[in-house]
Amino acid sequence: MSTAGTRSPAADVATRVRYLLRIADTSLVLGQRLGEWIGHAPAIEEDLGLANTALDLIGQARLLLAYAGELEGRGRSEDALAFLREEPDYLNATLAEQPNGDFGDTIVRQFLLDAYQLELFERLATSTDARLAEIAAKAVKETRYHLRFSAGWLVRLGDGTAESQGRVQASLERLWPYTRELFDPDDTDREIAAAGIGPDAAALQAAWSARVDRVLSEATLRRPADSPYRWYGKQGRHSEHLGYLLSDLQYLQRTHPGASW
Amino acid sequence: MYTQGLTEPGVRPATESTPDDAERLRRFEARIEAEEKIEPKDWMPDAYRQTLIRQISQHAHSEIVGMLPEGNWITRAPTLLRKAILIAKVQDEGGHGAYLYSAAETLGVSRAELIDQLLAGRAKYSSIFNYPTLSWADVGAIGWLVDGAAIMNQIPLCRCSYGPYSRAMIRICKEESFHQRQGYDIMLKLARGTAAQRRMAQDALDRWWWPSLMMFGPPDTASQHTALSVRWKIKRFTNDELRQKFVDFTVPQAQFLGLSIPDPALRWDEAAKRHEFGAIDWREFNDVLKGHGPCNRERLAERRAAHDAGRWVREAAVAHAAKRAARAVA
Ligand SMILES: [Fe+2]
Ligand SMILES: [Fe+2]
Fold first, then answer.
1. Does A124 map to a domain?
2. How wide is the angle at C-alpha B259 spanned by C-alphas B137 and B277, nearest 5°?
3. Region A92-103: what's the mean pLDDT?
4. Rounded mean pLDDT of B56-71?
């Protein structure tokens, strides 16, 4: 990474592209996961709700990937980036790629990421990067709905039956360790924050944490203890689950190179 | 969301015959004749009510089961735009299901009862969804042919004599015609694409053509429901009339794609100004209807699994709503 004061324009672009890919891939991978649900939810209304969120996330991924491709300047389209990278080149948060599990697992994963994305997009809406700010402003409105859906269900499941509370508390324990990655800044995050493009990780974490605590308390759920940081999806080191997700995602593009659809 | 509709048993109307019934029936049929809409609170013959419940609930079940074969391709859609369009489409079908269950509920059954009938294997849904989706072209073929056939069936239903069904169909038909165009657009891309893509498209047409023709139901000579349904303006055209319309509409589209329809007997009859087509294999239709299609077991098993897996979630929602209500009173 470049040292302070001697930042070369090329490194700058690479950092910005990397940062965009982190946001884009988190939406992409999460949207792909939600797509697995459609037709299998607990009731029709939940099928519709999960589909809504999936659609918005895929839409965000498209805008962000198209922008990343243009900024990168190597002629890669949104689809080239979405379908034709190798696993370590996907920079989504590891939490997003975790399997759907039961409805409670999906709601917990969704709630933790919705709360994160809401805080993130609200801040990116005032980014010094005007194009990113514009994309984020649209995403903020969508994410408010996503959070209303996931937080609403977290409260219903947490403060529902003894069974639902037990199940969703277990989901929370299982997924909580992946949240650490969202706020642990690396060089990319720091450079982006210094340039006024993205938020400061500590401020983001405080706001997220307060929001999460409010909902957990309404849901009568316990906040799990923090655990050591072990996940580095945003640097391309993933859990075992991403490869399978990508093999479905990429299947047709890989099987028919150069075809148009 | 779960506290209403789902758990309340339907209010069934009294069915015993009274001296007034003949007069009521006369007035009911006069209203139908005058193209007036029948609304939920109006008197209606029990056979009319039962016919509608059967038809609307079968339609609703078809929308819900129909989410599965196409949903099968959401994770594998070839571009992000196609993925988004497919998610939106499958979501629309779910919306149609919800909307139709509500229309059925106006006749005195509950959604929960109807879903139980489906899961118990006691209700029918469109047999077409018992065929597998084996390639991306199947998503195109379903939109083009299956949604296309659905539109043919459903446009006349927009004028159905029962108000809530007619209004539901107006809304649904608009979305089905989007689906049809999107499906055709997928086929067009494939037909103009690589050799492998063209093969994929032809193979999908080969497999979906005949089942699509069967979607219009048994031939008029064998249909038990058509006569009364036509008289009461639940149906406006017979199965065979609609099937013919579909063939005449679809054949030129296949020609434009450069794909061939798998029917050696298909030809244009200049005198009758319509296509003649080969005999439909009604034995296959009846087999699939009776549960022996390639995917009948899988589709129902998948619906049941989703329903069972969601039970604790629905129970939690009901329990939470009750807690809230109790707190609001306290
Ligand atoms: Fe539909
Ligand atoms: Fe449709």
1. yes
2. 110
3. 98
4. 97
